[in-house]
Amino acid sequence: MQKKFFLLVIVLFGLFTVLLFARAVNKDPVESRYIQKAEEELVDQNYKVEHEQEAKWLLKNKANQPEGFAYLGKAQGYADKIIILVITDLKRQIQDISVIKHTETPSYFQRLVDNRFFDQFIGKDPANIGEQDDIDNVSGATITCEAILQAIENAYRRGEGNSD
After folding, report:
1. Going residue by residue through the chain (164 aa), what tens digit of pLDDT does each one get?
2. Alpha carbon 123 to chain centroid distance?
3. Under a CB-based contact definition with an 8 Å cutoff, are residues 73 and 83 in contact?
4. What does the pLDDT read at residue 32?
5. Fewer CB within 10 A of the terminal residue: the chain, N end or C end?
């Protein structure tokens, strides 16, 4: 009986060690897939990209001149994580936001598009986007709107080396 218990403890400890190691090596197994999607989107927008950090790219034009930065961020939406790509100019003012992944209810997410929710971020500083008084949520999609605001801030902070 003691041998079986001891063997069970060793097996569980080994399994725990393997899982812990796997998590340390690959913090978020889906993350690399979204980094790849973000890079593909940037290339589709005719940028040359230089990966500066895990979630930050330097964007260059066809003449190889720096034009801005791109940041990948995420936040918890109503249904699941929302993953976005924030593109800024060299002064780090938002120029575009692309949604890389979401599983929000399509009709609620469409409200954001119909109400031009993303347009209000153009020219704004991503570092403190949630503190801006002139950002309006879309009625009926408040949780999704708040998640996008958080994802923008997370993208910038993560790309600039601050915690997510």
Report:
1. 677 766 666 755 666 665 555 444 444 444 788 988 999 999 898 999 998 888 899 999 999 999 999 999 999 999 999 999 999 999 999 999 999 999 999 998 999 999 999 999 999 999 988 787 888 999 988 999 999 999 999 999 999 887 54
2. 19
3. yes
4. 84
5. N
Query: What's the predicted TM-score (pTM) here?
Result: 0.78
Distance CA 19, CA 5 (A): 21
Spatial separation of the C-alpha atoms in residues 91 and 16, rounded to whole Å:
46
51 CB-near residues (< 8 Å, 6+ apart): 39, 57
Task: Give the integer Cα–Cα distance in Å for 111 and 114.
Answer: 5
Taking a C-beta distance cutoff of 8 angstroms, is the pair 49, 57 a contact?
yes
3-state secondary structure the chain: CHHHHHHHHHHHHHHHHHHHHHHHHCCCCCHHHHHHHHHHHHHHCCCEEEEEECCEEEEECCCCCEEEEEEEEEEECCCCEEEEEEEEECCCCEEEEEEEECCCCHHHHHHHHHCCHHHHHCCCCHHHHHHCCCCCCCCCCHHHHHHHHHHHHHHHHHHCCCCC
Query: Do 76 and 141 meet the contact criterion of CB atoms below 8 Å apart?
Result: no
CA distance 70 to 37: 13
| Residue type, position 81, single letter | K
